Amino acid sequence: MAALTLLRRGSAPARLLSGTLNARNPCIGATQGCHLRRHFSNNKILVELDEASGVAIMKLNNPPVNSLSLELLTEFCITIEKLEMDRSCRGVILTSAAPKIFSAGLDITEMCGKSAEHYAAFWRAVQELWLTLYGSNMVTIAAINGTSPAAGCLMAMCCDFRIMADNPKYTIGLNETQLGIVAPFWFKDTMTNILGHRLTEQSLQLGQMYTTPEALKIGLVDQLVPEDKVQSTAAAVICNWLAVPAHARQITKSMMRKQNIERLVNHREADIDNFVNFIGKDSIQKSLQVYMDRLKQRKQ
Ligand SMILES: CC/C=C\C/C=C\CCCC/C=C/C(=O)SCCNC(=O)CCNC(=O)[C@H](O)C(C)(C)COP(=O)(O)OP(=O)(O)OC[C@H]1O[C@@H](n2cnc3c(N)ncnc32)[C@H](O)[C@@H]1OP(=O)(O)O
Predict the structure, then answer these.
(1) Does residue 96 have its Cβ closer than 6 Å to ligand 1?
(2) Where do the domains of the chain lie, and which CATH numbers do they carry?
C-alpha cells in the first residue's frame, strides 16, 4: 500500500476541524505549560509526541550511524503513518539520537551479496519511506544534527524545512556516484525541486558532499544554528508553520509535490526492476565492496 497521503487523502479539512489546537497559534498550549507528552518507540525510532503543541519529535536510533536498514525503513513508515492518523499530531521534527550523524544513508550491507528478492523488498521499503515522508500531510522539519549523506540527505530533503547544526565537521549531499551507484530519478527530482536543474546536475554527477555554509548558500538547508540550538529552533520554526491554516498549507504542499509523487507511483515496479538489475551486477557489487572496505580502513 503506497503511503501517498497527500494525494489519496481528502482529509485536510477534517484534520483541521478535529484538531485540538488553537487555530491561530497551534503552539499556544505548549507555551502555557499544559504539556501532555506521549512517548512511544519501535526498536529503532524514538517518538515523543507533545499533545499540547501537536508536535512529535522523531529520533532515528540505529547506532552507530543510523544506516537505513530494511528494519529501520519499515519502522520509519509505520511511525509516520501512525502519527499521520493521530489527530493530536500535526507536525514532526525529524532528528537523530546518535551524536554527530543524522543518518549514513541506506545500509550498504542490505545492497551487498543478497538475493534479488531481498533487493526488491529493500528497494520497495526505500520507495515507501520517500512516498510516506515526501507525501506527508503533516508539517515536517528536519533537525539535522550531524552528517547526512545520500538517503540521509534525501530524508532531510523530503521535509518542509531543514535546520542544520553549524559544525565544520558535518556535511550533507547526495554522494551516490562516489560509491559507483546512481541516485534514482525520484532522488534527483526531490533535489531539483530544491536546488534547480543545473546545480542538481553538478551535485549528482560529482556526488558532492557540502559543508554547512555551502549547503546554506545553495539552499540545500534553510538555516544553520549552533549545535545546542537545533532542537529549540526546530520547535520554534514548526510553530510558525503550524500557525498557517492547515487545509490551505496541505493543499499547497500537495500541489507542489504531486507530480513527483505520481511519477514514482506510476513507475514503481519498473523502478524496482531497475534497481534489482543494477545492484546485482558484478561490477556494482565490486564497487560497493571497495567502498565498504575503504570505510573500514579509514579507522585503522
Ligand atoms: C539506473 C539507476 C537505477 C536504480 C538505482 C540504482 C542504484 C541505487 C542507488 C541507491 C541510492 C543509495 C543511497 C544511499 O544512501 S547509499 C549509502 C551512502 N552512504 C555513505 O556513503 C555513508 C558512508 N559512511 C560514512 O561516510 C561514515 O560512516 C560516516 C557516516 C561519515 C560516519 O563516520 P564515522 O563516525 O567515522 O563512522 P564509521 O565510518 O567508523 O562507521 C561506523 C560503522 O558503520 C558502518 N557504516 C557506515 N556507513 C554505513 C552505511 N551507509 N551502511 C552500512 N554500514 C555503514 C561502517 O562501516 C562502520 O562499521 P564497522 O563494522 O567498521 O564499525
Answers:
(1) no
(2) 5-298 (3.90.226.10)
